[in-house]
Amino acid sequence: MVAFAFREFYKTTTVVKYVGNEKDAIAVVALNRSLFTTVLRELLLEGNEHVVEVYDEVVRMGWRLSRSASPGRLTAFEDELYRSNEMVDIPVVMAARVVVRDSQLIVSLAYANTSTRQVGACEFVDDDQFCSLEAAVVQIGAKECVVPKEAASTPEGRKLRDVLARCGALATDWKPSDFSPKDLETDLGRLLKSNIEHYRVVIEQEGTKAVLAALLKFTELLVDQSNYGKFALVKHDMGRYMRLDSSALRALNTFKHRTDANDSFCLFGQLNKCRTPMGKRLLHRWLKQPLLDLAEINRRHDIVEAMVDDAVLRDRLRGAHLRVLPDIERLTRKLERGKCTLQDLCRLYQASAQLPLIAEALEQYEGPHAALLKELYGDALAAAHDDEHLGKFEALLEASVDLDKIPDEYTICATYDPELGELQQEKDKVAASIQQVHEDAAAELKLQVEKVLKLERSHLGYFFRISKKEETSVRAKLASRFQVIEARKDGTKFTSK
Questions:
Q1: pLDDT tens, 31-61?
Q2: Measured CA angle at 72 (ends 50, 296), to 5 deg
Q3: Helix H segments across 293-378?
Q4: Angstrom distance (rounded) from CA 11 to CA 354
Q5: CA dihedral for 426, 427, 430, 432, sign (positive or negative)
Q6: What pLDDT, in 10s, does the model give residues 93-106?
Q7: DSSP string, 74-92
Q8: Cβ(421)–Cβ(411) under 8 Å?
Q9: What distance in Å separates the CA atoms of residue 141 and residue 90, rounded to the nearest whole number?
Q10: pLDDT confidence of 262, banded at 50, 70, 90?
Q11: What is the pTM of this model?
């Protein structure tokens, strides 16, 4: 990462410093938060060849690995990667193994999609060029693939890695023992929603069991207990979607290339009029998985026709309701991992409040596809927002969070607990005294409160700010009676002594 940072961003080696003694010195480059995020995105999202690791120095123990991520496992750096950017493409992890049986190439693969809570697997016969495997990697959208390490030197192993490289997936070597299905059924029993017997058809083949075992170990889904009972296991149907290899995707300009100036050069950019991050990810997945079933295609076309023909419905959904929805899938994952903030909960509350409005808009549609809209969306939204589900969540949040202060401040309501009420009274007294100091400073400097003399707050605490023009007229008083913090283009910041 050091070499990458100074070569691609600083363009000079003068920024490289060395930490430690001469023999064990480590080359380092200092990155601010913004540049660190940019480097992370370049390594993990734009590229497919790197693994990022963060080490913490522990007293008397040296350096210890604290976080790591690869193109298929971004959880450790998800906050940095998507703090100011939407997650358009879900990082899907895959495991694959190739064996020769009766002069045939048998490919076994498994994948995990944490967004859809789905684990899939299949086994098929492939040709010498792995055309079916390449189509499967494109359909699944894998960013990283776990492969057996011992097969790297075989002709099949080399071709497998070439296919993954063409598809933009990082090949990660794992030991043969990691492909052992010894405890697979027990692990799946904890991870899946229903009994393992319901999925017996998926795991009946030995190759499928092996790649599923390697996949679960690599993704560490069982380490996080919030995943227990949340996933579904499916048999990946290669014939359900049109077979597109990596060359076809590039020839069709389906997605943006790194050399493209903007998204308008690709099919995804032209079609992407989605209002929500979830919709963009769904469109991204659909473009990689063109349907072949005529009934399913017609059903999608019917939904599109309903939106095209009814401008009122379309404008209500796009202009009023969908545009205010946050990234619900990402927020729910944070909630399940126990890393959700009060602001995240409030954003989920705002999303929940939109669901009955969306359902109402769909119910008012009276066109030829009203029954289909109700079946696909209306009934599901009504069931999710009843008193036993999201209704309870909204009631709890309304009782515990001070919604009147949103979005300026996210706090627990003072009436929720007597101790919080006492703290709120103290806080109000402090706020009143700060306001009084503000008014006194305005009177002393002979400036208008808020209009000219502004009271602001940042990591510096509370402070006053005036423009450069006003500063020249009160410079003498500022120097004698106030403490100047800094003078910049946006004005002078100062506090009372």
A1: 888 888 888 888 888 877 888 888 888 887 7
A2: 140
A3: 294-309, 311-315, 328-336, 342-363, 370-373
A4: 48
A5: negative
A6: 999 999 988 889 99
A7: -GGGHHHHTSSS---S--E
A8: no
A9: 8
A10: confident
A11: 0.81
